Amino acid sequence: MTNVGFCDKLIYVKNKFSRALEIIKQKTALDIDIYDKNGHIAATTSQNEKNFDFVSFRAQKFANGVYADGKKKLTYFLISTFDGVFLGIIGGADAVSKNYAFMIANIVGGNLTLNDDIKSILLDEYSPQQIRNFAAKHEIVPSHIVFSVCCKENILQKVLEELKKADGGTAVQIGGKIAYIKHGVDPESPNAGREIAQLLYENIKRKFFEEVHIGFGSAVKDFADIGKSFVESAAAVDTALDAGSKNFVYSYKDFLLSKIVCDMQKNAVDAHLSTFLTEEAREIFEDADMMETAEQFLANSLGVSQTSRILYMHRNTLMYRLDKIQRATGLNIRSFDDAVTFQLVKLLYLNSKKR
Fold first, then answer.
1. Which of 3, 121, 190, 289 is most buried by its number of CB atoms within 10 A?
2. What pTM was computed for the model?
3. What pLDDT was estimated at residue 9?
4. Where do the structural domains in the chain lie, given as residue ranges?
Protein backbone atom coordinates (compact mmCIF):
# COMPACT_ATOMS: atom_id res chain seq x y z
CA MET A 1 0.00 0.00 0.00
CA THR A 2 1.29 3.48 -0.88
CA ASN A 3 2.22 5.70 2.02
CA VAL A 4 0.29 8.85 1.10
CA GLY A 5 1.95 11.00 3.76
CA PHE A 6 5.41 10.03 2.54
CA CYS A 7 4.50 10.69 -1.11
CA ASP A 8 3.13 14.13 -0.24
CA LYS A 9 6.25 14.99 1.71
CA LEU A 10 8.47 13.85 -1.18
CA ILE A 11 6.62 16.19 -3.54
CA TYR A 12 7.02 19.13 -1.15
CA VAL A 13 10.72 18.45 -0.65
CA LYS A 14 11.33 18.18 -4.39
CA ASN A 15 9.61 21.54 -4.90
CA LYS A 16 11.74 23.09 -2.18
CA PHE A 17 15.11 21.79 -3.37
CA SER A 18 14.57 21.95 -7.14
CA ARG A 19 14.59 25.75 -7.41
CA ALA A 20 17.92 26.03 -5.57
CA LEU A 21 19.51 23.15 -7.50
CA GLU A 22 18.55 24.66 -10.86
CA ILE A 23 20.25 27.95 -9.96
CA ILE A 24 23.37 26.17 -8.65
CA LYS A 25 23.67 24.04 -11.80
CA GLN A 26 23.35 27.09 -14.04
CA LYS A 27 26.30 28.70 -12.26
CA THR A 28 28.52 25.65 -11.64
CA ALA A 29 27.42 22.98 -14.20
CA LEU A 30 27.41 20.49 -11.30
CA ASP A 31 25.03 17.55 -11.19
CA ILE A 32 23.64 17.17 -7.69
CA ASP A 33 21.59 14.35 -6.14
CA ILE A 34 19.75 14.75 -2.84
CA TYR A 35 18.35 11.81 -0.84
CA ASP A 36 16.23 11.56 2.27
CA LYS A 37 17.17 9.41 5.29
CA ASN A 38 15.49 6.37 3.73
CA GLY A 39 17.57 6.60 0.58
CA HIS A 40 14.74 7.92 -1.62
CA ILE A 41 15.65 10.52 -4.21
CA ALA A 42 14.39 13.93 -3.08
CA ALA A 43 15.75 16.08 -5.89
CA THR A 44 18.32 15.84 -8.66
CA THR A 45 19.73 17.83 -11.56
CA SER A 46 20.72 14.63 -13.39
CA GLN A 47 18.60 11.84 -14.79
CA ASN A 48 19.31 9.75 -11.69
CA GLU A 49 16.03 8.51 -10.21
CA LYS A 50 17.53 5.51 -8.39
CA ASN A 51 17.29 5.18 -4.62
CA PHE A 52 20.47 5.22 -2.54
CA ASP A 53 21.78 2.27 -0.52
CA PHE A 54 22.69 3.44 2.99
CA VAL A 55 23.49 -0.03 4.32
CA SER A 56 27.26 0.22 3.82
CA PHE A 57 27.38 3.99 4.07
CA ARG A 58 26.09 4.94 7.51
CA ALA A 59 29.39 4.13 9.23
CA GLN A 60 31.21 6.84 7.28
CA LYS A 61 32.47 9.75 9.33
CA PHE A 62 31.63 13.25 8.15
CA ALA A 63 33.99 16.11 8.92
CA ASN A 64 31.84 19.22 9.36
CA GLY A 65 29.06 17.54 7.41
CA VAL A 66 31.18 16.59 4.36
CA TYR A 67 32.80 13.26 3.37
CA ALA A 68 34.98 12.84 0.26
CA ASP A 69 35.30 9.28 -1.10
CA GLY A 70 38.54 9.15 -3.08
CA LYS A 71 37.89 5.65 -4.45
CA LYS A 72 34.46 6.44 -5.90
CA LYS A 73 35.41 10.06 -6.67
CA LEU A 74 32.26 11.35 -5.00
CA THR A 75 31.70 13.90 -2.26
CA TYR A 76 28.83 13.41 0.20
CA PHE A 77 27.40 16.21 2.34
CA LEU A 78 24.61 16.62 4.90
CA ILE A 79 21.80 19.16 4.45
CA SER A 80 19.87 20.17 7.58
CA THR A 81 16.33 21.51 7.17
CA PHE A 82 13.21 21.56 9.35
CA ASP A 83 12.12 18.41 7.45
CA GLY A 84 15.16 16.59 8.81
CA VAL A 85 18.63 15.78 7.50
CA PHE A 86 19.18 14.97 3.81
CA LEU A 87 22.22 13.63 1.96
CA GLY A 88 23.67 15.40 -1.06
CA ILE A 89 26.12 13.86 -3.55
CA ILE A 90 28.30 15.52 -6.22
CA GLY A 91 31.10 14.20 -8.43
CA GLY A 92 34.75 14.62 -7.45
CA ALA A 93 36.58 14.15 -4.18
CA ASP A 94 39.20 16.92 -4.21
CA ALA A 95 39.34 20.17 -2.24
CA VAL A 96 37.29 22.02 -4.86
CA SER A 97 34.51 19.43 -4.61
CA LYS A 98 34.49 19.72 -0.82
CA ASN A 99 34.20 23.50 -1.06
CA TYR A 100 31.29 23.10 -3.46
CA ALA A 101 29.67 20.67 -1.01
CA PHE A 102 29.87 23.19 1.84
CA MET A 103 28.42 25.90 -0.40
CA ILE A 104 25.51 23.76 -1.65
CA ALA A 105 24.64 22.56 1.87
CA ASN A 106 24.49 26.16 3.11
CA ILE A 107 22.42 27.39 0.16
CA VAL A 108 19.95 24.51 0.05
CA GLY A 109 19.70 24.05 3.81
CA GLY A 110 20.36 27.43 5.38
CA ASN A 111 18.59 29.82 3.03
CA LEU A 112 15.60 27.60 2.37
CA THR A 113 14.99 27.17 6.07
CA LEU A 114 14.30 30.89 6.33
CA ASN A 115 13.34 33.02 3.36
CA ASP A 116 12.39 30.42 0.76
CA ASP A 117 10.57 28.24 3.25
CA ILE A 118 8.33 31.17 4.23
CA LYS A 119 7.58 31.75 0.53
CA SER A 120 6.78 28.08 0.02
CA ILE A 121 4.52 28.07 3.07
CA LEU A 122 2.60 31.10 1.79
CA LEU A 123 2.31 29.52 -1.66
CA ASP A 124 0.88 26.33 -0.12
CA GLU A 125 3.77 24.10 -1.19
CA TYR A 126 4.16 22.36 2.20
CA SER A 127 1.91 20.03 4.11
CA PRO A 128 0.21 21.34 7.30
CA GLN A 129 2.44 19.15 9.47
CA GLN A 130 5.61 20.45 7.82
CA ILE A 131 4.45 24.01 8.45
CA ARG A 132 3.74 23.25 12.11
CA ASN A 133 7.21 21.70 12.42
CA PHE A 134 8.68 24.88 10.95
CA ALA A 135 6.71 27.06 13.40
CA ALA A 136 7.81 24.91 16.34
CA LYS A 137 11.47 24.97 15.28
CA HIS A 138 11.49 28.77 14.93
CA GLU A 139 9.29 29.30 18.03
CA ILE A 140 6.68 31.29 16.12
CA VAL A 141 3.87 32.43 18.40
CA PRO A 142 0.28 31.56 17.33
CA SER A 143 -2.36 33.81 15.68
CA HIS A 144 -1.35 35.55 12.46
CA ILE A 145 -2.56 37.95 9.77
CA VAL A 146 -0.90 38.25 6.36
CA PHE A 147 -0.60 41.63 4.62
CA SER A 148 0.22 42.13 0.93
CA VAL A 149 2.11 45.38 0.41
CA CYS A 150 2.18 46.88 -3.09
CA CYS A 151 4.47 49.85 -3.75
CA LYS A 152 6.58 51.44 -6.47
CA GLU A 153 9.52 49.35 -7.65
CA ASN A 154 12.07 52.00 -6.67
CA ILE A 155 11.27 51.64 -2.95
CA LEU A 156 10.24 47.96 -2.82
CA GLN A 157 13.56 46.66 -1.43
CA LYS A 158 13.77 49.50 1.11
CA VAL A 159 10.23 48.81 2.32
CA LEU A 160 11.05 45.09 2.53
CA GLU A 161 14.10 45.77 4.70
CA GLU A 162 12.07 48.10 6.90
CA LEU A 163 9.37 45.48 7.46
CA LYS A 164 12.00 42.84 8.25
CA LYS A 165 13.07 45.02 11.19
CA ALA A 166 9.54 45.22 12.62
CA ASP A 167 8.98 43.35 15.88
CA GLY A 168 6.68 40.34 15.84
CA GLY A 169 6.56 39.96 12.07
CA THR A 170 8.13 38.25 9.07
CA ALA A 171 8.52 39.84 5.63
CA VAL A 172 9.38 38.23 2.27
CA GLN A 173 9.11 39.33 -1.34
CA ILE A 174 6.80 37.33 -3.59
CA GLY A 175 6.73 38.60 -7.14
CA GLY A 176 6.21 42.36 -7.18
CA LYS A 177 4.67 42.44 -3.70
CA ILE A 178 5.82 42.10 -0.12
CA ALA A 179 4.09 39.56 2.09
CA TYR A 180 4.23 40.64 5.73
CA ILE A 181 3.11 38.15 8.38
CA LYS A 182 2.18 39.67 11.73
CA HIS A 183 2.45 37.12 14.55
CA GLY A 184 0.71 37.14 17.92
CA VAL A 185 -2.36 39.15 16.87
CA ASP A 186 -5.59 39.05 18.86
CA PRO A 187 -7.80 36.63 16.88
CA GLU A 188 -10.91 37.92 18.62
CA SER A 189 -10.38 41.55 17.58
CA PRO A 190 -12.53 42.29 14.50
CA ASN A 191 -10.46 45.39 13.60
CA ALA A 192 -6.94 44.06 14.22
CA GLY A 193 -6.13 43.61 10.53
CA ARG A 194 -7.31 47.06 9.47
CA GLU A 195 -5.60 48.79 12.40
CA ILE A 196 -2.25 47.10 11.72
CA ALA A 197 -2.56 47.75 7.96
CA GLN A 198 -3.33 51.42 8.59
CA LEU A 199 -0.31 51.71 10.90
CA LEU A 200 1.93 50.05 8.29
CA TYR A 201 0.63 52.41 5.62
CA GLU A 202 1.26 55.52 7.73
CA ASN A 203 4.77 54.42 8.76
CA ILE A 204 5.83 53.58 5.20
CA LYS A 205 4.39 56.79 3.76
CA ARG A 206 6.05 58.88 6.49
CA LYS A 207 9.45 57.27 5.94
CA PHE A 208 9.55 56.99 2.14
CA PHE A 209 7.13 59.76 1.05
CA GLU A 210 5.41 57.36 -1.37
CA GLU A 211 1.93 55.89 -1.51
CA VAL A 212 1.54 52.18 -0.81
CA HIS A 213 -1.44 49.87 -1.10
CA ILE A 214 -1.98 47.20 1.57
CA GLY A 215 -4.41 44.30 1.53
CA PHE A 216 -4.96 42.07 4.54
CA GLY A 217 -6.44 38.62 5.02
CA SER A 218 -8.33 37.03 7.87
CA ALA A 219 -6.71 36.25 11.22
CA VAL A 220 -5.70 32.59 11.60
CA LYS A 221 -4.66 30.88 14.83
CA ASP A 222 -2.74 28.00 13.19
CA PHE A 223 0.45 28.91 11.29
CA ALA A 224 -0.47 26.15 8.84
CA ASP A 225 -3.37 28.35 7.65
CA ILE A 226 -1.37 31.46 6.73
CA GLY A 227 -1.51 30.49 3.05
CA LYS A 228 -5.25 31.21 3.15
CA SER A 229 -4.69 34.62 4.74
CA PHE A 230 -2.03 35.41 2.12
CA VAL A 231 -4.33 34.55 -0.79
CA GLU A 232 -7.02 36.79 0.71
CA SER A 233 -4.62 39.70 1.21
CA ALA A 234 -3.23 39.48 -2.33
CA ALA A 235 -6.73 39.23 -3.80
CA ALA A 236 -7.83 42.29 -1.81
CA VAL A 237 -5.06 44.57 -3.06
CA ASP A 238 -5.26 43.29 -6.66
CA THR A 239 -9.03 43.73 -6.81
CA ALA A 240 -8.81 47.20 -5.24
CA LEU A 241 -6.24 48.38 -7.78
CA ASP A 242 -8.24 46.90 -10.67
CA ALA A 243 -11.35 48.70 -9.41
CA GLY A 244 -9.49 52.02 -9.16
CA SER A 245 -10.15 52.34 -5.43
CA LYS A 246 -9.20 55.69 -3.87
CA ASN A 247 -8.29 54.06 -0.55
CA PHE A 248 -4.94 52.52 0.44
CA VAL A 249 -5.91 49.81 2.95
CA TYR A 250 -8.16 46.94 1.89
CA SER A 251 -9.75 43.90 3.50
CA TYR A 252 -10.49 40.80 1.45
CA LYS A 253 -14.06 41.16 2.72
CA ASP A 254 -14.37 44.59 1.11
CA PHE A 255 -14.22 43.07 -2.36
CA LEU A 256 -16.37 39.97 -2.09
CA LEU A 257 -18.92 41.61 -4.36
CA SER A 258 -16.18 42.46 -6.88
CA LYS A 259 -14.98 38.85 -6.93
CA ILE A 260 -18.52 37.61 -7.56
CA VAL A 261 -18.89 40.04 -10.48
CA CYS A 262 -15.51 39.01 -11.94
CA ASP A 263 -16.63 35.39 -11.93
CA MET A 264 -19.84 36.14 -13.85
CA GLN A 265 -20.21 35.21 -17.51
CA LYS A 266 -20.15 38.11 -20.00
CA ASN A 267 -23.72 37.52 -21.20
CA ALA A 268 -24.97 37.69 -17.60
CA VAL A 269 -23.07 40.96 -17.00
CA ASP A 270 -24.50 42.48 -20.18
CA ALA A 271 -28.04 41.37 -19.30
CA HIS A 272 -27.92 43.01 -15.85
CA LEU A 273 -26.34 46.20 -17.22
CA SER A 274 -29.02 46.62 -19.86
CA THR A 275 -31.55 47.20 -17.07
CA PHE A 276 -29.73 50.19 -15.56
CA LEU A 277 -27.18 51.52 -18.02
CA THR A 278 -28.90 54.37 -19.85
CA GLU A 279 -26.84 57.00 -21.66
CA GLU A 280 -27.27 59.34 -18.66
CA ALA A 281 -26.11 56.62 -16.26
CA ARG A 282 -23.08 55.89 -18.43
CA GLU A 283 -22.08 59.57 -18.22
CA ILE A 284 -22.17 59.35 -14.41
CA PHE A 285 -19.90 56.30 -14.37
CA GLU A 286 -17.45 58.04 -16.74
CA ASP A 287 -17.37 61.26 -14.68
CA ALA A 288 -14.40 61.04 -12.27
CA ASP A 289 -15.71 63.80 -9.97
CA MET A 290 -19.18 62.27 -9.69
CA MET A 291 -17.76 58.81 -9.02
CA GLU A 292 -15.39 60.13 -6.34
CA THR A 293 -18.35 61.82 -4.68
CA ALA A 294 -20.42 58.62 -4.78
CA GLU A 295 -17.56 56.43 -3.52
CA GLN A 296 -16.76 58.73 -0.61
CA PHE A 297 -20.44 58.92 0.31
CA LEU A 298 -20.68 55.11 0.36
CA ALA A 299 -17.36 54.76 2.22
CA ASN A 300 -18.60 57.14 4.92
CA SER A 301 -21.75 55.13 5.66
CA LEU A 302 -24.02 57.46 3.66
CA GLY A 303 -23.11 60.34 5.97
CA VAL A 304 -23.57 63.75 4.38
CA SER A 305 -21.58 65.79 6.95
CA GLN A 306 -18.57 63.43 7.03
CA THR A 307 -18.44 63.18 3.22
CA SER A 308 -18.61 66.96 2.86
CA ARG A 309 -15.68 67.37 5.25
CA ILE A 310 -13.51 64.79 3.51
CA LEU A 311 -14.21 66.20 0.04
CA TYR A 312 -13.96 69.84 1.24
CA MET A 313 -17.34 70.31 -0.42
CA HIS A 314 -20.30 72.42 0.61
CA ARG A 315 -23.23 70.37 1.85
CA ASN A 316 -25.52 71.85 -0.84
CA THR A 317 -23.04 70.86 -3.58
CA LEU A 318 -22.95 67.31 -2.27
CA MET A 319 -26.76 67.13 -2.17
CA TYR A 320 -26.92 68.46 -5.74
CA ARG A 321 -24.56 65.72 -6.93
CA LEU A 322 -26.49 62.99 -5.13
CA ASP A 323 -29.69 64.27 -6.77
CA LYS A 324 -27.96 64.24 -10.16
CA ILE A 325 -26.90 60.61 -9.65
CA GLN A 326 -30.48 59.72 -8.75
CA ARG A 327 -31.90 61.42 -11.88
CA ALA A 328 -29.37 59.71 -14.17
CA THR A 329 -29.47 56.20 -12.70
CA GLY A 330 -32.82 56.04 -10.96
CA LEU A 331 -30.99 55.12 -7.76
CA ASN A 332 -31.12 57.20 -4.59
CA ILE A 333 -27.86 56.22 -2.96
CA ARG A 334 -28.96 57.88 0.29
CA SER A 335 -31.04 54.72 0.67
CA PHE A 336 -29.09 51.63 1.76
CA ASP A 337 -30.76 49.30 -0.77
CA ASP A 338 -30.16 51.69 -3.68
CA ALA A 339 -26.59 52.29 -2.51
CA VAL A 340 -25.89 48.54 -2.70
CA THR A 341 -27.49 48.38 -6.17
CA PHE A 342 -25.44 51.39 -7.34
CA GLN A 343 -22.22 49.72 -6.14
CA LEU A 344 -23.14 46.52 -7.97
CA VAL A 345 -23.98 48.36 -11.22
CA LYS A 346 -20.66 50.23 -10.97
CA LEU A 347 -18.77 46.96 -10.63
CA LEU A 348 -20.68 45.42 -13.54
CA TYR A 349 -19.87 48.45 -15.70
CA LEU A 350 -16.15 48.42 -14.84
CA ASN A 351 -16.03 44.67 -15.45
CA SER A 352 -17.72 45.03 -18.85
CA LYS A 353 -15.10 47.58 -19.96
CA LYS A 354 -12.27 45.09 -19.32
CA ARG A 355 -13.78 42.30 -21.42
1. 121
2. 0.60
3. 46
4. 4-129, 140-258, 264-354
